[in-house]
Amino acid sequence: MTTQSESDITNTFVPQRLDTRAPLNELLSSRRSPRAFSERQIEPSKIVALFEAARWSPSSANEQPWHFVAATKEDTRIYNALVESLMEGNRRWAQRAPMLVLGVAQSVYLKIGRAYQHAWYDLGQSVANLTVQASALGLAVHQMGGFDAGKAREFLSIPDGYEPVIVFAVGYAERPETLPDDLRKREEGPRSRKPLEVMVFTEEWGKPSRLVEVQNSMTSDPASRN
């Protein structure tokens, strides 16, 4: 007989790896931001590991400006407040995820009282660490800028000096067939990114850097097309 946990694992959606121009670690090449989440609960030890990964991120002057308001569906009031803060387009699918998290950045260096210009950047690094750790644990993360920061501040009593920046859903990815048709089509569409030539410069702005020219030896490597 198949146990519930075995069934959950069997039904977990595993995305295809990217077609990259150079070999990447599979944790990066297989990462995706799904909208389809299983209702399977996240193991408590994995939740701790996610926030440990965030905790050990680098930051300016080691200020560590990141803070998180996290809720599973067992935390009914906070989970519902996070759902309510989302824009309708995100709320449609995110309310199925087993955990929602609000990322908050402090706006002032606590040590010196000066404006913390890089706080959002540092928060982003911590969430990136968390996201890679999630991939390592078989979990997926979908980050959302589409939320009402004012509502989040009000509902969750975020004090002055701290800025709600991002909400993200965490859980086990489900197959796209579970989504409404319009979201399913977006879920099944190919992932794409701008080419390196439009983002990496050396000699002058807008001129592609020689450092990202693709060598024949690299493009001929089968691993680069995984």
List the helices and strands and how they pair.
Layout (H helix, E strand, L loop, with lengths): L3 H8 L14 H4 L14 H12 L10 E7 L3 H10 L2 H7 L4 E8 L12 H18 L3 E5 L4 H8 L5 E10 L9 H8 L27 H4 L7
Antiparallel strand pairs: 1-2, 2-4, 3-4
Descriptive labels:
NADH Oxidase; four-stranded antiparallel sheet; 2 domains; 226 residues
Distance between the termini: 35 Å
Low-pLDDT residue spans: 1-11, 216-226
Topology-level CATH name of the largest domain: NADH Oxidase
How do the helices and strands follow one another from N- to C-terminus?
Answer: HHHEHHEHEHEHH
The profile of the biggest β sheet is: 4 strands, antiparallel
Our count of domains comes out at 2
Structural class: alpha+beta
Tally of DSSP β-strands: 4
Radius of gyration, in angstroms, nearest whole number: 20 Å
Name the average pLDDT: 88
What is the 3D form? Answer: globular
Percent of residues in β-strands = 5-15%
**Sheet with the most strands: spatial strand order:** 1-2-4-3
> What is the fourth-level CATH superfamily of the largest domain?
NADH Oxidase
CATH class of the largest domain: Alpha Beta
CATH architecture of the largest domain: 3-Layer(aba) Sandwich
Share of helix among residues?
A: 25-40%
Count of individual helical segments? 9
